[in-house]
């Protein structure tokens, strides 16, 4: 219920003060990966919160990711393209030199989104799939499932809907941050809503 979510946020702002509420939201761990769904859900109907969160992002990559997410959701295509390109440039500087599997997987994860936002389908798919191969769910159940979710989002952005549903089916069948209610309200998955296989997936896991 996105309307109710916005009402709750507004109540919090009025009760505790605008800067306190925004600061609490923005300073939670790993703002970039975990707040993309929230930003997409709120972007169209509640401009103040997404704008304030992006200004308090904890790192440059997070800032570009969140800004690109908001601008794309608001159909501000030129600005979205600019932020996706800034994200691409930031990540490709030394992407091959990143130390550690976790760091490298995160780089390729967001490169996938950047390329998808720029309309570079082949590069987007290759980057997203590489992130998952570097840190699969079998090696890290939490981060690996987050990488799968981002890969699903990347697939949707480039029109590979069946591949996206494959990832979502895997995520719904195992512990992850993905849930049926999230899939119903997160607008990035809107292109899947008229596909029978997606609807069957929601129905199946709504009953479990």
List the defining traits of the structure above.
208 residues, mainly alpha
What can you see in these coordinates?
With 208 residues, this protein is an all-alpha fold. It is 73% helix and 0% strand. It has helices spanning 2-16, 18-26, 31-43, 48-55, 60-73, 77-92, 101-117, 121-134, 141-157, 161-172, 180-185, 196-206. Helix 7 runs antiparallel to helix 8 (121-134). The protein is globular. The chain starts with a helix and ends with a helix.
List the topology elements.
Layout: H1 2-16, H2 18-26, H3 31-43, H4 48-55, H5 60-73, H6 77-92, H7 101-117, H8 121-134, H9 141-157, H10 161-172, H11 180-185, H12 196-206
Short description:
By secondary structure, this protein is mainly α. It has helices at 2-16, 18-26, 31-43, 48-55, 60-73, 77-92, 101-117, 121-134, 141-157, 161-172, 180-185, 196-206.
Percent in helix: over 70%
Largest sheet: none
Question: Structural class of the secondary elements?
Answer: mainly alpha
N- and C-termini, Cα separation: 21 Å
Task: Report low-confidence residues grouped into runs of 5 or more.
Answer: 26-31
Task: Spell out the helices and strands N to C.
Answer: HHHHHHHHHHHH
Number of strands: 0
Q: How many individual helices? A: 12
Strand fraction band?
under 5%
């Amino acid at each position: 219920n996105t309307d109710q979510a916005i009402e709750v946020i507004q109540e919090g702002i009025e009760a505790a003060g605008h800067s306190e509420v925004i600061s609490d939201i923005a300073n939670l761990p790993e703002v970039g990966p975990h707040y993309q769904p929230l930003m997409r859900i709120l972007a169209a109907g509640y401009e103040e919160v997404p704008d304030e969160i992006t200004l308090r992002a904890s790192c440059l990559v997070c800032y570009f990711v969140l800004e690109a997410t908001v601008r794309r959701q608001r159909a501000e295509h030129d600005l979205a393209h600019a932020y996706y390109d800034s994200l691409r440039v930031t990540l490709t500087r030394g992407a091959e030199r990143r130390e550690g599997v976790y760091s490298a997987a995160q780089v390729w994860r967001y490169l996938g989104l950047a390329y998808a936002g720029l309309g570079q389908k082949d590069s987007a798919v290759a980057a997203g799939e590489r992130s998952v191969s570097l840190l699969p769910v079998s090696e890290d159940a939490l981060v690996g499932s987050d990488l799968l979710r981002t890969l699903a989002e990347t697939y949707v952005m480039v029109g590979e809907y069946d591949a996206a549903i494959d990832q979502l089916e895997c995520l719904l069948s195992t512990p992850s941050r993905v849930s049926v209610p999230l899939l119903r309200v997160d607008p990035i998955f809107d292109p899947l809503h008229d596909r029978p296989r997606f609807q069957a997936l929601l129905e199946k896991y709504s009953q479990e």
